[in-house]
Amino acid sequence: MDLSEQKLYAYRGNKVLKEFTVSTGRWNTPTPIGEFRVWIKLLYDDMEGPGYFYPKVPYVLYFYQGYGIHGTYWGTPIGQPASAGCITMRNEDAAWVYEHADVGTLIKIHP
Question: What residues pair up with 44 in beta bridges, in sequence order?
Answer without folding.
Answer: 58
